[in-house]
Amino acid sequence: MGTAFTDESKRLFLGRFLLPEEIEPWIRAQSLGSLPAIYGVTHHTWAPTPATWKGRSSLDGIFRYYRENLGWPAGVGPHFFVAPRERGGPWGVWVGTHPRHDGIHVSGWNSRSIGMEYVWNGDLAPFTPEMLRIGTLVWQAIERKIGLPIRISYTRGSPGHFMHRDKSPKSCPGNRNDRAAIIDAYRASTQTQIPDFLEDLMAQLTDEERDQLLADIHNTALASMEQTELQKRTVKSGQALSYRVNALLAGVLSLVEEEGELPEVVRAELAKATEAGFTVPGSA
Ligand SMILES: [Zn+2]
Questions:
Q1: Is 282 domain-assigned?
Q2: Are residues 130 and 27 in the same domain?
Q3: How far apart are the C-alpha atoms of 100 and 102, rounded to whole Å?
Q4: Residue % of the chain over a pLDDT of 70
Q5: Is residue 7 part of a domain?
Q6: Does 4 reside within a domain?
Q7: 82 and 215, same structural domain?
Q8: pLDDT computed for residue 193 by the predictor
């Protein structure tokens, strides 16, 4: 029956295969650190493909290539590979770099982002629904584990989920993969944990305002993750929605600061946030 998993986060590289039903229990058993990754980045391998995938030896070969040809540190690469167990075998996910540790998979965005590779050539055909289902199980389990959503991103350059090509002049995860279809698949299946007041606020902004806000939130989130002990304590004590919401609110505030005046809609939403017990950065 169910396998009992243990925390393997002290290891950088795992090379372990999980069947779909093992994904949630495995992630539940892992420590993801006090500042868990908050971005999800989708990739395709281009090669190997399911037809040439041999399981662990293929995964090892990929990491050997990173180390020997690209000069990356041993065991550091993408975190998850949606792939068959072996050629023709059942599909699941291979764990490469443990998700507690920053990997290498997208230049400039490796800090606190989870890299998910699909063993597939997305320039020839889009991911299958089954592949996306397995990828989504991973995101879902991570969200449950850390109690935060990875999902506020529907435009280029915004945080949350993004495609490698959003940040790099590559086709990855492939020309045949429509970013909206992938994001929608993730969105439909992952949890909606963003508090209502933020959803309400987002809904009232124009597309441009929302893009600006999301870009701002991203920068603020990165800055706050790097600097504030307060955020770390918040995460540790499991209060409010922790640093993610604080970062969102800080993003709202910095946007407002730039424009000089607090729009009525923002003021109302912040009041609701404060009422709901969320810490509004800078207002202490
Ligand atoms: Zn990529």
A1: no
A2: yes
A3: 7
A4: 62
A5: no
A6: no
A7: no
A8: 42
Ion ligand 1: residues, Cβ under 5 Å: 43, 164, 172
Please write the tens of the pLDDT for every residue from 63-85: 999 999 999 999 999 999 999 99
Question: What's the rounded Cα separation, in Å, for the pair 72 and 65?
Answer: 9
Q: Are 135 and 184 in contact (CB under 8 A)?
A: no
- How many structural domains does the chain have? 2
Structural domain boundaries, residue 168: 13-189
CA of 165 to the centre of ligand 1 (A): 7
Taking only the tens place, the pLDDT of each residue in 204-220 is 777 777 666 665 655 55
The residue out of 189, 215, 235 marking a domain boundary is 189
Ligand 1 centre to CA of 275 (Å) is: 42
For residue 44, give the 3-state DSSP assignment: strand
Residue that is written with structure tokens 């970013």 in the block: 179
Q: What is the pLDDT of residue 128?
A: 97
CA of 140 to the centre of ligand 1 (A): 21
Q: Final residue of a domain: which of 127, 160, 189?
A: 189
Quote the ligand 1 centre to 105 CA distance (angstroms): 6
Q: What is the dihedral of CA 154, 155, 156, 162, to 10 degrees?
A: 0
Residue 37, domain CATH: 3.40.80.10
Q: Is the pLDDT reported for residue 99 higher than 90?
A: yes
Provide CB contacts within 8 A for 177, sequence distance 6+.
44, 122, 126, 127, 163
Residues 205 and 175 in one domain: no
- pTM for this structure? 0.71
Residue 48 belongs to a domain: yes
Q: Quick one: 8 exposed, middle or buried, by C-beta within 10 A (0-12, 13-18, 19+)? A: middle
- Is 163 found in the same domain as 202? no
